[in-house]
Every structure is written in C-alpha cells, then in structure tokens.
Write a structure and sequence with these properties.
This protein has one domain. The protein has four helices and three strands. The protein is α+β, with helices and mostly antiparallel strands. The protein is globular.
C-alpha cells in the first residue's frame, strides 16, 4: 500500500529501512527518504511524503505504516521487509494489522 501511494519502485521498497521513515508530529504524515533509485542518476536521494487518508483507515498509508512499525517493535532497525516477524503469535498480529 505504501508503494502504491508513494509511487515507489519495487527496488526502492526492497531497500527501505526503518531509519529512512520519519513520522510527523501528530501522526498525520510519513516522510520516506529514498536514498537510491533507478531514476536518481547522481545518488542525491529524495523525500516522498504520504498523507493521511481521512475517509478510510484501512486504506490509509500512514496508519498502515504506524501499525507495521509497532508490529516490528521499537528495537527493530532493519529492512522494512523482514524475513520473519520478530515477535508473538502470527494470527494475532495479522488480526491487529488488519484492524
């Protein structure tokens, strides 16, 4: 969902780490720093902002990102696509994530 709203390429999402995601005060926007991209010839990087979808929380990229980061936990500092979810019961995490 974040990839769709931010118009990211797969390679940009695949390299994304938690350090490159910044949540604005008040949780009303997310800024994502893309350090390297196919279209960035000089490797300058760029920020992409995602705003809240006030009409549907299930389709809101900010709320989904916040839930996903809380699912990973505050100590997690790796890729946004971990090979395995670090904690707990997977069924409960999926229910939490979808709510």
């Amino acid at each position: 969902m974040v990839g769709f709203y931010g118009a990211f390429r797969f390679s940009e999402i695949n390299r994304l780490t938690t350090h490159e995601v910044v949540i604005s005060p008040g949780n009303n926007a997310v800024a994502i720093m893309v350090l390297k991209s196919k279209t960035d010839q000089y490797n300058e990087g760029r920020n992409r902002a995602l705003s809240v979808n006030p009409y549907d929380a299930l389709l809101c990229p900010v709320s989904v990102t916040l839930k996903y980061l809380s699912l990973l936990g505050p100590q997690y500092a790796g890729n946004m696509q971990p090979r395995q979810i670090p904690t707990g019961n997977l069924k409960m995490q999926i229910l939490f994530f979808m709510s």
